[in-house]
Structures are given as C-alpha cells and as structure tokens.
Amino acid sequence: MLKVNNIVKVFNPHTVNEKIALNGVDLELKSGDFVTVIGGNGAGKSTLLNCVAGVHHVEQGSIVIDGTDVTKLPEHKRAKFIGRVFQDPMMGTAATMQIEENLALAARRGKMRLLGPGITKKERESYREQLKILDLGLENRMTAKVGLLSGGQRQALTLLMATLQQPKLLLLDEHTAALDPKTAAKVLETTEKIVSKNNLTTLMITHNMRDAIAYGNRLIMMHEGRIVVDVRGEEKKNLTVEQLMGLFSKTSGTEIANDKLLLS
Amino acid sequence: MTSFLNALPSAVAQGLIWGIMAIGVYITYRLLDVSDLTVDGSFCTGGAVCAVMIVAGYNVWLSMAVAFVVGMATGLVTGLLNTKLGIPPILAGILTQLGLWSVNLAIMDMKANQPLNVNNYKLIVSLRYLQDVVKGDRPFYMYPLLTVGLFTVGIILVLYWFFGTELGASLRATGANSNMARAQGINTNVNKVLGLMISNGLVALSGALLAQYQSFADINMGRGAIVIGLAAVIIGEVLFGKLFRNFGLKLLAVSIGAVIYYVVIQAVISMLDINSNYMKLISAVIVAIFLAVPHLRSKIFSGKGVNVKAGKEKNNVKGQ
Ligand SMILES: Nc1ncnc2c1ncn2[C@@H]1O[C@H](COP(=O)(O)OP(=O)(O)O)[C@@H](O)[C@H]1O
Ligand SMILES: [Mg+2]
Predict the structure, then answer these.
(1) Which member of A259, B61, B199, B319 has the lowest number of beta carbons within 10 Å of its beta carbon?
(2) Contact A163, A127 (CB under 8 A)
(3) What is the pLDDT of residues B95-136, one digit of tens each?
(4) What pLDDT does B312 receive?
C-alpha cells in the first residue's frame, strides 16, 4: 500500500543550519498494516509523515502509494489518498466553520469542487449517524462552530474527517499528545475502533511506548533520520516496555534521559 | 445641520456604493485572511474603464461588466505575484497598486480625470437622479438609493449562494485554516487567487458605480479605499456582530458599516465646519478608533490580556 524507497530530506541545505532529517528511509506497508512509530525528539518521525503527505518534498528517493508514484505530487493532490490527524488539535479543523461544514469539506477530499451544494440534506443525516460513533454528543451540535469544541473533541472530529472518505493511508502524528490522559485514552480508543472497522493502513507516531506496543501489528523506531528497529507480529505483541527501552538505548547509544517522555 | 440633512440621501447613496467595495474587502480580509492593498488601484481601474467605455459609446451595462472583469484581472496579478512568485500578500498588493497607477492613467488616455456628463449618457446611477426623481422628471426606480440598494442586495445574494457551494466552502476553508484545507485536497493557491479576483472585481464594480454617480473618474478616486473598506468591515462587526450570525447578514452589516462611516464623516465635516482637506485625517482617526474597539473592549473586560486572540487559541488546546 505504501512504498518509501530510500528517501532523504535535508532542511536548509548548504547553510550552517543544514539538517539531514531523513537519511535514507526505506519502509513498506502492506494493506491493513497498523504501524506505530517511536523515537526520540528530532528523530525524524514527523518529517517522515510530512514527506509522505507532501508537506515537504524529498531530495532523493521515491514514495509510492497503492501503485501511484506520488513523489512529485503537491500536498493537495496526495490528499486524495491520505487521511491525516496532527499533533496540534487546532490544525486539523477550521475553527470558524461549523462541525457539519468541516465534515462536508472532508467528504469531498480528492474530488473536484465546483458549484454544487457545499452540503446536502442527505449528507447531514449521514454525518449525524457517523458522529454518534465518537460518543461525544457532537451529533446534536452539528451547526456549532468547531472553535467552540475542546481539544479532544476536535481531535476526534479530525479523525472522523480523515476517514469519512476511506483513505488508502492514515497518518497520525502524536494526535493524542496535546490531550489530558483521560481524553487521550478515549481518542486512542476511537482511533482503534475506526482503523479496525475500515481495515485502514495506518502510520501512528506516539511518544508513549505502552501505546506503541498495545496498538497495531508492527512497530518501528527511528533515530537520527533512520529506521533502527522494526518488529512485527508475535514478536511485537510480546515486547515489554523494558525491552523496548533497552532497544532504544542500544541503538541510540544513550540512556533514555527522560523516561517520562516515553512512558507518560 | 440643515445642510447635513439635505446632503443625507447623497451621503447614504455614496456610502452604499463604497459598501460594495467594502464587501470585496471583507472577502479578502475576513474570509481569506489577507490584507489586500490592490484595492486602492483596482477601485480607480473600475471607474476609469467604465467611464472611458461609456464615453466611447458602449452600453453602460457592458461597461460595468468589463470593469468587473478588468478588476478581477488586477486581483489575478496580485494573486500570482503572491502564489507563483512567493511575494508576501501585502507587498504583492502594493506592487499591483503601484503599477495600476500608470495603467489607470493609460486607460484614461493619460489624463488624470475622465468626465462623464450625466446629460450626455444613459447612466445607471447619478447624483443628479436624486433631485430628478423627487421633482418627478425621472421614474422612481432610478432613485440612486434604490438602484444601489438593489445592486447591493443582488451581490449579497450571489455571494451567499457562491460561498455555500463546494468551491465557495473550499475558499472559506482556505482562509480559515490552510493546513486543513490542503490536507482535505484543496488547492489553496488557486483559491487565494480566486478570492482576490472576486474581491477586486467587486471593488472595480463599485468604482464603476461611483464614477457614474459623481460624473467622472479620477486617478485619485481609489486613494484610501482600503481604509474605508476596513472601516466598513469593522464598524459592521462592532455594531452588528452579536446580532447577525448568518453570512448574508454579515455582508449586509459591512454595507451598513460603509454607510455609517460615510455619513459620520460627512456629519463631522459639515457640523464642525472643517476644511475638507482634513477629511483623510478624520478618516484615519475614526478607523483607528473602530479598529481599536474590539481590542480595548476585551482588555477592559478581562482586566489584562495583551493579545486576546492568542490567549483564546491557547485555551482550546487542552481539552476534556
Ligand atoms: N521545517 C523545518 N525546518 C528546519 N528543520 C526542521 C524542520 N522540520 C523539522 N526539522 C528538523 O528536522 C529534525 C527532525 O524533526 P522531526 O521530524 O520534527 O522530529 P520528531 O521525530 O521529533 O517528529 C529535527 O532536528 C528538526 O529540528
Ligand atoms: Mg514530531
């Protein structure tokens, strides 16, 4: 479903601030894979997702989604294939627009937008049903401005928007990191529900090792722009947080200075 | 005082004409979240194109339609400077405005003024019609307040429809959150250009109406237009923000804001008997006051808070 071939991403090339954020990353995801991504701050996790989504263009290598080479495609054209939820709850929704308007925008991802109605009555009914899945009562507030919602509600809504039109790939970048633990757990639960219901191919960055082990069928660890650990199946299921931390310090050559960051 | 009251219908009509320009400004300033300074140039472009065409014998409706299209072209230039060449929007607008100065002169055959005598041409609106209708020399539907009012309502209805379409909604999303818009497959660059085009088309149309109303186009007629437009937007929001939630009503508030602005300026000038050269200074002061109101209001009520907007955003991040 996703083939990332030896991609390199350099920020501020040929300057004193030159930063090789991705240094030859290879990654292949099969349809239905749910891969969790961990790694220290600045390891290149977000950059990897952003390169796949087209926010950044890569210096080298190629990215293929379901047989289509998207390496040169701009972000808005790749959106046809990709659903995204960001770390910042403000980023995934338009605050000044209504809940149903946000959903209607998402429902048209990858489609031509001309002078047809921005939202139809039939759509409204279907959104009302789908909002019930989130279990937040949003189905009764469909004309409320999204800016009135809490961070957790906005993340849950963004998640629904990302999957309203079945994406070939779902990219989650620490989408629960800005939420309090209880809300984070709930949004993660919803994520699991939506992903398994639609059998979505998913890449989920998390800073929480427990979550990284508990969710998905494969786990990768990044360090200095490379994938350094890749475990799947039974092996992943049987991982413990201690083993994972051991792997982390072995590969990075450093102890985890701040394990709070990784365990929260 | 009586002189002010006598001038009131004229001031309201002129305010309504500026209101159409202000609706154009609303589209860029509020919906796209850019301050577009093309306006000062494109307003004159609209007036110049319309006046020159009417004088050359073209139908007045055709002349206004062409003014609208040429106005859109000015927005296209600013949009391309911004999206294709990476020039920041404010600077892109200033550059277009600067260039339009020469273009506008060229349109008027290198004259600073293009007369458009109401006696010689069939115009849609004119200051003259105010008295003519009252005297019974012209039918009631040519009363400028009615004509411009109908124009305004028509424009608001079309915009209300457009911004409810898939394309219109994607344009609003572009201004509201361009990251989200791109993630939902929206070409934000195309939308920015489109928004600038629609906006400047309306601005030029407003200029075309003003040229007819005052019986001339003038190279300076657009000077300060952006300030008037912003004033109208802010006055409309300060006075009707709580009342008008619907998008169409918000546009109406902008139009009313322009009328209020224009009437207040006229009142100040006629009552205080000031040299009209001070008009720009008075305008700047009035606009500064209205721009400051939302800020000062929240500062007083919250007791602190320097950056209200940023504070609000932060509160939303952590949630339950
Ligand atoms: N837009 C950017 N410009 C310059 N440097 C960047 C940019 N984005 C990320 N970086 C740098 O690239 C490295 C990887 O960042 P990132 O992918 O965000 O790491 P993380 O694994 O924490 O998500 C970091 O050193 C970061 O400072
Ligand atoms: Mg990151």
Answers:
(1) B61
(2) no
(3) 999 999 999 999 999 999 999 999 999 999 999 998 888 888
(4) 35
Strands (E) in A45-153, as ranges, are 60-65, 68-69, 82-85
How deeply is A121 buried, as exposed, middle or buried, from its count of CB atoms within 10 A (0-12, 13-18, 19+)?
Answer: exposed
DSSP state of B58: -
Task: Determine the Cα–Cα distance for residues A263 and A242; give it in Å rounded to an integer.
Answer: 11
Q: What pLDDT was estimated at residue A99?
A: 97
Among residues B269, B196, B203, which one has the least CA distance to residue B232?
A: B203
Partner residue facing A117 (CB), from B165, B183, B186:
B165
Q: How far apart are CA B213 and CA B11, in angstroms?
A: 11
- Which residue in this structure is represented by tokens 């409309």? B236
A158 near A191, Cβ under 8 Å?
no
Which residues in chain A come in under a pLDDT of 70?
252-264
B158 alpha carbon – ligand 2 mean position (Å): 44
Element (H, E) at A223: strand A218-223
The complex's ipTM works out to 0.91
Confidence at residue B303, expressed as pLDDT on a 0 to 100 scale: 57
Nearest to B217 by CA among B52, B29, B83: B52
Of B166, B179, B319, the CB nearest to A113: B166
Contact yes or no for B255/B19 (Cβ under 8 A): yes
Residues with Cβ within 8 Å of residue A193, at least 6 apart in sequence: A133
The two three-digit tokens of residue B266, written as one number: 């006229």
Contact B251, B160 (CB under 8 A): yes
Q: Tell me if residue B22 falls in helix, strand or coil.
A: helix
Length of chain A: 264
pLDDT tens-digit series, residues A148-167: 999 999 999 999 999 999 99
CA-nearest of A143, A165, A65, A66 to A98 is: A143
Residue A82 with chain B: CB contacts under 8 Å: 183
The CA distances from residue A139 to A129, A251, A263, B9, in Å, are: 7, 47, 34, 49
| CA-only gyration radius of chain A, Å | 19
* pLDDT tens per residue across span A168-215: 999 999 999 999 999 999 999 999 999 999 999 999 999 999 999 999
- B49/chain A closest Cα distance in angstroms: 29
For residue B48, count other CB atoms closer than 10 A to its CB.
32
* Residue A20 CA: distances (Å) to CA of A28, A74, A225: 21, 22, 7
Task: Report the alpha-carbon distance of residue B257 to residue B236 in Å, rounded.
Answer: 4
Q: Which DSSP letter does residue A238 get?
A: T
The residue to which tokens 């005052």 are assigned: B214
Using 50 as the pLDDT threshold, list the residues of chain B that sit under it. Answer: 304-320
Q: Is B140 exposed, middle or buried (0-12, 13-18, 19+ CB in 10 A)?
A: exposed
- Which residue, judged by its Cα, is nearest atom 9 of ligand 1? A47
**B264-270 long-range contacts, Cβ below 8 Å, gap at least 24?**
B266/B4, B266/B7, B266/B8, B266/B11, B267/B4, B270/B3, B270/B4, B270/B7
Q: How far apart are CA B292 and CA B304, in angstroms?
A: 15
Under a CB-based contact definition with an 8 Å cutoff, are residues B171 and B191 in contact? yes
- CA dihedral over B154, B161, B170, B248, signed as positive or negative: positive
Architecture of the domain defined by B2-310: Orthogonal Bundle (1.10)
Domain ranges of chain B: 2-310
